[in-house]
């Protein structure tokens, strides 16, 4: 496969937020990197795709900045771009939690590498805690994991009240790539939990390095693949078809763009419903033609990759600077 998909995050202080956002955006445009990148005063969070050689350049570019030198990239292979365009946005947080006062660089749960997580997860005094949202953990989760009823990660702090009875346990948190666990485990410590851990690199790294044992179902990902296999040891389907209720981990993007929900729909119901998640979506005049995949490429008509580079002279200056860096 000629392409890579990169998943990464890094907590680090960024003071020149808008200038760096422009520089980062322009580098992606010049090197045909696509995806979603969030930049805030607390760091970086991104999922991007590109040709393998372009991804190598991108990783080198990120790590060349001393602020992000220890960034760890989860690297997966793919046969094409996993995104239609590039978006580099400045936001208040790199993952929306409402916990701005917590700095994972100062205090967070103990990081467990996949092998250590695997060795610890089944011990009697251990609780495995999924800190992801409902639509994610319903598609796949670790065997015997505690799963919270949350629609967004920002709901996590309120739900921690339901975990008071677990304060005497070792709590092992996990999420897709590790970023949510940084704030989640830090918050647990702040709330009086004493023995808190997090799966370093998340589900994705666990699948790559530990075979994914005891992760049941598929892992929801935030790119055009929607879901990926994790478990190569004892795989099991746990999600149900949204239409008929039979076991299915076949993720579908509802054919009605006004709905656009991502849910499991079995192949039979996919054809019967023409890719829609409900009768009302099936009869919608906006419904897209269904081709059996349940995936619809975003409409990029008129897309301008330079959009978001607010100051053209500044962008040209950045471009000159980047070329100068590459010559040194």
TrEMBL record:
Q: Which reaction does it catalyse?
A: uridine(34) in tRNA + AH2 + O2 = 5-hydroxyuridine(34) in tRNA + A + H2O
Keyword Glycosyltransferase found: no
Molecular functions per Gene Ontology? oxidoreductase activity, acting on paired donors, with incorporation or reduction of molecular oxygen
The record places domain Rhodanese at: 122-215
Q: Cross-referenced SUPFAM superfamilies, in alphabetical order?
A: Rhodanese/Cell cycle control phosphatase (SSF52821)
InterPro entries per UniProt? Rhodanese-like_dom (IPR001763), Rhodanese-like_dom_sf (IPR036873), Rhodanese_C (IPR022111), TrhO (IPR020936), TRHO_N (IPR040503)
- Report the EC number(s), separated by commas if there are several: 1.14.-.-
Q: What is this protein called?
A: tRNA uridine(34) hydroxylase
The organism named in the record is Cyclobacterium marinum (strain ATCC 25205 / DSM 745 / LMG 13164 / NCIMB 1802) (Flectobacillus marinus)
The uppermost taxa in this organism's lineage are: Bacteria, Pseudomonadati, Bacteroidota, Cytophagia, Cytophagales
């Amino acid at each position: 496969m000629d392409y890579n998909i990169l998943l990464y995050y890094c907590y680090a202080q960024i003071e020149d937020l808008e200038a760096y956002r422009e520089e980062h955006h322009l580098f992606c445009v010049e090197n045909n990197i696509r995806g979603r990148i969030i930049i805030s005063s607390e760091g970086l969070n991104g999922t991007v795709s590109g040709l393998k050689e372009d991804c190598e350049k991108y990783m080198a570019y990120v790590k060349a900045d001393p602020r992000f030198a220890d960034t760890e990239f989860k690297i997966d292979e793919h046969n094409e771009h996993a995104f239609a365009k590039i978006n580099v946005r400045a936001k208040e947080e790199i993952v929306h939690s409402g916990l701005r006062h917590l700095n994972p660089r100062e205090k967070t749960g103990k990081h467990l590498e996949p092998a250590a997580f695997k060795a610890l997860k089944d011990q009697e005094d251990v609780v495995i805690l999924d800190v992801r949202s409902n639509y994610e953990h319903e598609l796949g989760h670790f065997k015997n994991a505690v799963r919270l009823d949350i629609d967004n990660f920002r709901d996590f702090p309120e739900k921690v009240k339901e975990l008071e009875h677990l304060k005497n346990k070792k709590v092992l948190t996990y999420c897709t790539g590790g970023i949510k666990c940084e704030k989640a485990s830090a918050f647990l410590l702040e709330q009086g939990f004493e023995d808190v851990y997090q799966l370093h690199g998340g589900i994705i790294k666990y699948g790559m390095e530990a075979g994914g044992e005891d992760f049941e179902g598929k892992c929801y990902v935030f790119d055009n693949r929607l879901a990926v296999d994790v478990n190569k040891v004892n795989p099991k389907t746990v999600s149900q078809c949204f239409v008929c209720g039979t076991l299915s981990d076949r993720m579908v993007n509802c054919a009605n763009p006004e709905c656009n929900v991502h849910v499991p729909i079995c192949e039979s119901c996919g054809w019967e419903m023409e890719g829609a998640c409900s009768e009302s979506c099936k009869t919608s005049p906006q419904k897209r033609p269904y081709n059996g995949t349940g995936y619809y490429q975003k409409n990029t008509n008129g897309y301008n990759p330079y959009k978001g580079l607010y100051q053209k002279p500044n962008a040209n200056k950045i471009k000159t600077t980047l070329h100068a860096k590459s010559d040194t």
